[in-house]
Structure prediction request, 347 residues.
Amino acid sequence: MKKKNKIVSQFIDLDFIKIQDTKSHLQYQIHSLLAKIGVEIEYANDFLLRSDEASYSEKGILQAYATQDSSRCSLLYQGETLEADRIYANTLESKMQLQRPAGTLPSGLFSSIQKNPLYFECEQLLWDHKSLFLKLQNHVTLKEPTLGNLYAKNDVEIEQFISQNKTQIKAIYIHGESLLEREEPEKQWKHSVSCSGLLHVDGVKNLITLTSSDQSQKPVVYKDNEVLLSATKAVVEYENASSYQPLSLSLQGNVTLESNKPEAPLCQAIADRLIYSPETQTIILSALSKRRVLFKDDQENLSMSAREIHLTKDPATGKMQAKGIGQVKLSFTGEESKLFQQLFSKS
Prediction:
């Protein structure tokens, strides 16, 4: 079906050009258009654009803008609303550019039945409607109930797909500094993950993957009410259900663990891999071949090394209990003590 554009306003100024064909027949074609006061534009069958003024040229270039400081352009799309200072559209290529946009987009992250939209704001949005691709530029904020609040200093790329005639988010990519935060006041629970490399939200597989940057050498850092974790790579898995609680957190490469309760005795660990369940607060630390997990508990005056160490929370006392598996030793070698001191020495 051919996509049509329709412009309605209280005032329209049309500029025509005269075209004469080889048979000397005269035709008139719109060269440009200027619409003022109460402008409404139906664009590409999917968008309804409202603005103070708008212009259109024969090359398919549409520009909408506000003429007053107190007003902004609005864009309605599949039941969601975006606002911007200015909207530029290439109607022939189905591409748009929005200046200082803020609003909501259809989401569907981690669940096809999830109806909550994704709220966003940034300095500039580039939207390729035909390719189902959006690029949010500079000081980006995303807010979504499952995801939480996601902040990025530079660009955020969003890939969409169509399901039941409605667009949903397939993936989100961030290169560079990013911070993901989520708080559950009813549970008095808060967690965050920071990353300086690549953050990839896979809305179909229900995963968030974060990798550290080779240039900055900053690790991926996870923090909640109980623990502070760091690693080269992290994968957060979500259930495809109404629950917004992450199912598990997996860390790989140069893993460190510290307890994150100032009033509690300090627990620390070094490992190659870690699997953490936020719901049960169960942690499994493991080491690669010929390596060992190192664990230290100041309260119990315990130093332990093993191929694998399981940390579980005692439901009666609330204390963390450690269990070593595979060639357990209750002391560190001189080299292990030195490594522990280097990684956890306070600056």
Remarks:
- The first strand starts at residue 6 and ends at 8.
